[in-house]
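Appendix B. One record, verbatim.
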Amino acid sequence: MLLTLLSILMVLGLSGIIVLNTYRRKERITGMSGMMIAMSIGMMSSIALGFQLGIVFDHDLAIPSIIAILFGLGVGYLTGKPISVLASLDGMLAGIMGGMMGAMLGSMLGFTYIMVLFIDIVFIFIFFVVLQLTSSESVERKKTNKSGISIPFIAGIVTVAFGAVSVGLLLFNQYQDNRTTVVSSQNQEQSTVQENNGYQVISVDVKSNGFSQNNIVVKSGIPTKINFLKQTGYTCIKSIEFSDLDIDVYLEKGDNFITLDDLKPGTYHFNCGMYMYYGTITVV
């Protein structure tokens, strides 16, 4: 969650830099250039902020959407105001669209290192490109800093660096999942279904890439408890649905027991809330 908070501060700070830079250089920016600047920063800033707020305000899409849309409106308006009314309008409309999309994306996916860093990478890249445009003396002329290194080159270096960190975290997360899978497989060899106080008890690990076991076999006539054990928050699996049994349960981190009584012989299907991962319970 610390990474999310740092990302929010980054979006606020860099968006403010673009607004101030546009005001300082408003005489040099043409109408079309100003429209592109306002639209780009209005949309990208609201997408980035909405995504991060969608993670923070879990289970509540209204608050992150409202905040992100208002922020996008403000950034788009202030960026385009020194150029023209049309530039402000473009920026505000882009901010509305970005705020809605970002909040929905953050709420659906939840916190994952790879997605948070990916959104940060895209935002930083757009920031540097827009900064280059606002710092140009004209649309056609490119300007370099005193050292002779162009701003797009710096943007590329930063993007590659963030990309390398993202890939490293993704590989590490995959390694952790593989270790969990090995341990789970070893435990399942001993006993997949245990009996406790008259219940059949099954433990299913919820991981970033699905469930540790997605084909569960239980006996009929015995009440069943399934523990969807969520050991990590780095997964988009935020809820479990049993469409055949009219069950929809939000998964907290840790133990999540679902009790199934009087299951008749047959096959019952379950899936995550986003319909990406599936499993079955076979009653024999």
